Amino acid sequence: MRHALQWIRSLVFITVMYLAMAVLAVIYLPAALFTDDGAFRAVHAYTHFVRWAARVLVGLRSEIRGPVPTGEVVIASKHQSFFDIILIVSAVPRPKFIMKKQLVHAPIVGFYAKRIGCIPVDRGKRGAAIKQMLADVEAGRSAPGQLIIFPQGTRVAAGAHLPYKVGVGILYKETGQEVVPAATNVGVFWKRHGIMRYPGTAVVEFLPTIAQGLDVPVFMERLETAVEAQSNRLMAEAGFTGGAGGDD
Q1: Less CB within 10 Å around the terminal CB: N or C of the chain?
Q2: Which of 107, 243, 103 is nearest to 119 (CA)?
Q3: Average pLDDT for residues 204-222, to the nearest whole number?
Q4: Are strands 200-206 and 179-184 parallel, antiparallel or unpaired?
């Protein structure tokens, strides 16, 4: 009975979440059409609303830990579900993503992603994608912000592991920017697919910055070790004890 009630609450939350996306997209459209700041106000309003609605409707609280990056840096984050995107965007002042190319054509998301400077990448063409990504990053340097990349390239279930892709290492080397690793446990409560959302405390934690000066292999090892170790600690803190979490 309790599980069924939580499922219904989760369905209500998801419905409200997408309705709010449409409503806020319309409200902020005039400002977003003419200024980047208008687009950033829109995405911040939406992400703060989702965090509030998750707490009220399904009992899912959320926390940001560690020093929040505010300068021109690369954020390399563990990615377990849509909720870690929500938390990161709600926290940093000028977020922009390395994102899969298909999302450019998604209603609402595609428009606002372009307005805040997100960089689409074609996953199926690795070499060309990396060259294009670097070119687009360089072109977007006139609009400083926090460039967010998911080093594993996709959402990864709690307890699962995928290798880290070299694209983040190339960004580190070629941009000359510091990299802020970010760990999370959101996949324990909000899985990659399905309706169910579980109560608890979802966390994104910004970890100590990795400065320039490392060789790419050393950087990659340091990044993966930091993110995976802290994500595992956060998941254990949330009560996760199993292997790869399934979807509902």
Answers
A1: N
A2: 103
A3: 97
A4: antiparallel
Strands (E) across the chain are located at: 60-65, 73-77, 95-100, 119-121, 146-149, 179-184, 200-206
CB atoms within 10 A of CB 7: 16
pLDDT band, very low/low/confident/very high, at 103 (cuts 50, 70, 90): confident
The residues that bridge with 62 in the sheet, in sequence order, are 202
User: Which residues pair with residue 121 across a beta bridge?
Assistant: 100
For 5-52, the pLDDT digits (tens) are 999 999 999 999 999 999 999 999 999 999 999 999 999 999 999 999
pTM: 0.91
- From the CA atom positions of the chain, what is the Rg in Å? 18
The type of residue at 79 is H
Q: Of 167, 174, 165, 177, which Cα lies nearest the Cα of 210?
A: 177
CB proximity list for 80: less than 8 A, separation 6 or greater: 155, 156, 157, 158, 184, 185, 186, 187, 190, 191, 192
Question: Mean pLDDT over residues 212-229, rounded?
Answer: 97
* Measured distance CA(72)–CA(158) in Å, rounded: 30
Percent of the chain whose predicted confidence (pLDDT) is above 90: 72
Domain-by-domain residue ranges, the chain? 63-237
Q: Alpha-carbon distance 187 to 197, whole Å? A: 10
What the block records as the tokens of 66 is 């560690």
